[in-house]
Amino acid sequence: MIDIITMLATHWISIIGIVIGGICIAVGVHFVPVGGAPAAMAQATGIGTGTVQLAAGSGLTGLLAAGYMYKTLSAAGAVGISEVILICATGAVGAMIMMTTTMIVGNWVYIYGVGVPPASAKVEYDPITKNSQAPYVAPGTVGQGMPTVCFVSGTIGGLLGGLGGSLVYCMLMWVNGDPAISSIFAIGVFLVNAVLPSYNIQGTIEGFHDPKFKRVPKAIVACFIASLLCGIIAVMIPGTAMFGGI
Amino acid sequence: MSEPAETANQIDTKGVVVGLVGIYIAGISGIPYLAFLAGIGAIFATKMGADAVRRVCSYGIGTGVPSIGMLALGMGVIAAMFGLAIGKMYNAVFIGPIVGLVLALVIGFVVGSLTNKVIKLNIPVMERCLTEIAGAGVLVLTGFSVMVAGSMDFAVIVEKVITTGYIAPIFILGALGILHPFNANLGPDETQDRTLVHSYSCGAITMAIGGVCSIATIDPIAAILSIVIAAAIWYVNFMGFVRLVQRDAGAGYVGTGLLPPGAM
User: Fold this and answer.
1) pLDDT digit string (tens) for B202-247?
2) pLDDT tens-digit profile of A200-245?
3) Domain of B160, in residue numbers
4) Is B105:B14 a contact under the CB 8 Å cutoff?
5) A185 with A172: CB under 8 angstroms?
6) Do A50 and B78 touch (CB under 8 A)?
7) Three-state DSSP class for B190?
8) What residue numbers bound the domain in which A225 lies?
9) Does residue A246 fall inside a structural domain?
10) Residue B118 and residue A222: Cβ atoms within 8 Å?
11) Does any CB of chain A come closer than 8 Å to the CB of residue B163?
12) Alpha carbon A82 to its chain's center
């Protein structure tokens, strides 16, 4: 029989890792330019889908990259702190690739397909390129496409999301050593931490220049509590190896 | 939103009782031919989740209905696996689904309170509905996992459902059964019976896919039994759904000619 208290005492560092990962995911969601249904009709700035779909997409891509890196590194030896950093970096790059691909292809569709210039209605001037935005926003809409600032913001969002997801995965692998259980759990923790911030931004946000970005602290508090709860439960689940194999 | 024909308490009672009874008969009996009962329990749990989604999303949550379904299964997968693992750790497999359910209700209530108190979404039914949705998520996942594995033993479920990857279709289709009915029916003329009949048919599709997965994991005859029962449930409920759509269309409808007259 495996004692629950012993597992909690042994794996407290994994709980901290899961909480940090959860907060990274929560902050990452605020960086991703999500436009929802209006953006799908080129009537709002951002990617034309919901927060959860984007977060899940980038998170799963990051998880795949991180899982492959974990497999390669663990074949070479034990996985320590420096390996975890490498795995998290791989996951972050995987998620960034997914996010930037989505944004660049989305922009091609908006520019060459719909025929609209990417522009944001939330700011007068793009904070990065200093280009004027207002003349390019079509009347009756709140912007369209992904201007430079949204693209950069989305890339940062992918980085944080992938980093958080991979960190949760690594922490769970330390606990149970079973890739299947760890990945399905990482997905569960990821979804909880992606949906709570999406309620915080009420479904749409343009990126770090959006006034809604100031709501980040509330999401951090909520996701801290939710990830702590998920983390405590998750580290108490042993891998099948601890039952003497199957 | 019209007056509901079934109250939330009735739906929750049916979902939890039928869900747990189905899971227990299928899990404890050890007879592979009874595995489909866990699927039927999960269909009732799907309906319970779909009704909770219907009540909370009619307030307009701003992020689209799918987010809440994914949240349900996100919370559900953690609680379900924890429950089953606890059952295995203490050599009392039968406590697994109950522990998972209780834990999911706690997580759901905490997340619901966070949504209302910290994020300030201020939806009065949020706590109750997220509690129900998390409970439905755990019953759906446990139910279909037990149906595919034919056992409640955590080690068997890990070997036959999680390591094989069958957890992925169960996860996504289970979430679809909870989130899709209201997402497809929402609007000013949404009626409870139409949404819930739709949730039965979505649950039956998941059960049929689970049956296909169980061909390899338990027994071909048990799997075919599950698939046939699921197909029958799907047919009856989908035809009922089409009838209710025609009823709610009110002034009348005109066939587009895609299907021959009389096929519907």
Assistant:
1) 999 999 999 999 888 888 898 999 999 999 999 999 999 988 888 8
2) 888 788 888 888 888 888 889 999 999 999 888 888 887 766 665 4
3) 12-248
4) no
5) yes
6) no
7) coil
8) 4-241
9) no
10) yes
11) yes
12) 22
